[in-house]
Design brief:
The protein is an alpha/beta fold and 258 residues long. Helices cover 23% and strands 32% of the residues. Strand 10, helix 6 and strand 11 form a beta-alpha-beta unit. The longest helix has 13 residues. The protein is globular, with a radius of gyration of 18 Å. The C terminus is likely disordered. Bound molecules: flavin-adenine dinucleotide. The site of flavin-adenine dinucleotide has 31 residues, from strand 4, strand 5, helix 1 and helix 7.
Length: 258
């Protein structure tokens, strides 16, 4: 099934952290945008053969504007660099969706874990959990404090949010979040592959929901320049967790959910 495609206008560009650009998108005639729920993402068409997914990280109740936030990937194939360098205020951009493979299911308690740019789908989930009167906490890690997006917006949640910049405090300690998860609690995790793998290994079955921001891989897909290790691993079919998961489920590598 194909999602509806809309041409939107870039209304605002704002740095949300070092290396993270937030874009506000609007309909050119100020029409309402399609409804979405926390966890949804859109496909942004950046050029011929250049299409990337970005989670909606604004307010779902705001039908007039969508917000996405894009981390500039140094080793990427050009999608995020295009957003940072080419998309200007007033430009039109084709967007498909929204689609949601990371829905916030009803629960009494949530434990959210975000690594780096993985904060984007989690951000609207926090507001929804708050509004639903659920108990929740967020463990949010990043390499540096300056590179962690939306920390200002998170301040209003006080002690429910734990920020862990790796350069100051070391890596996220997942133990307290995933080792002992009561039956009324769901764990939502988005971030780098190793973080999701670690959560998957430790979290009790059925309690974890993850979204992976992995690029679409497959035969004929070129690895990023300067990453021969990645290309070699793919050629020899090394069993990265992602490849193993794809073999088990037959699913494309883009999105994996537990
Ligand atoms: C559902 C979903 C939601 C997403 N939401 C966001 C979001 O909110 N914000 C955001 O910044 N990004 C998000 N992404 C990721 C985004 O779609 C792009 O992948 C990202 O912007 C990087 O694009 P790129 O072309 O610059 O790099 P890509 O080429 O896509 O590379 C991204 C990373 O993958 C590695 N890589 C590239 N090619 C290969 C390969 N062949 N083998 C192994 N590794 C490879 C690169 O080294 C790099 O580290 C999301 C992805 C998905 C699937």
């Amino acid at each position: 099934m194909t999602s509806p495609e809309t041409e939107l206008v870039v209304e605002r560009r704002q740095m949300a952290a070092e290396g993270v650009l937030a874009l506000t998108l609007r309909h050119p005639r100020d029409e309402d945008l399609p409804r979405w729920q926390p966890g949804a993402h859109v496909d942004v068409v950046l050029g011929p053969g250049l299409e990337r997914q970005y989670s909606l990280c604004g307010d779902p109740a705001d039908r007039a504007a969508w917000r996405i936030a894009v981390l500039r990937e140094r080793d990427g194939r050009g999608g995020s660099a295009h957003v940072h360098e080419e998309l200007k205020v007033g430009d039109r951009v084709r967007v498909r969706g929204p689609r949601n493979h990371f829905r916030l299911e009803a629960a009494r308690r949530y434990r959210f874990v975000a690594g780096g740019i993985g904060i984007t789908p989690i951000l609207p989930m926090l507001a929804a959990a708050e509004e639903a009167g659920a108990e929740w906490s967020l463990l949010y890690g990043g390499r540096t404090r300056a590179g962690m997006a939306f920390t200002g917006e998170l301040e209003r949640y006080g002690e429910r949010v734990t920020l862990v910049p790796e350069e100051e405090l070391g890596r996220l300690d997942l133990g307290p979040v995933v080792d002992d998860v009561p039956g009324d609690t769901l764990v939502y995790c988005c971030g780098p592959g190793p973080l999701l793998d670690a959560a998957g290994e430790r979290c009790p079955a059925g309690r974890l929901r993850v979204e992976r921001f992995a690029p679409a891989l497959g035969p004929g897909v070129q690895g990023p320049p300067g990453r021969p290790d990645v290309e070699r691993r793919q050629r020899v079919g090394a069993r990265t967790p992602e490849l193993l998961q794809r073999r088990r489920t037959g699913a494309p590598a883009r999105r994996l959910h537990h």
